[in-house]
Amino acid sequence: MLMAGERYHAGFVAVHHYKMLERLRLIEAPTLVMSGEQDTQLPALKPVAQHIRRVCTQVVPGGSYFTTYENREALSRGILVDMGLEERSDDESQRRT
Question: How far is CA 89 from the centre of its chain?
Answer without folding.
Answer: 20
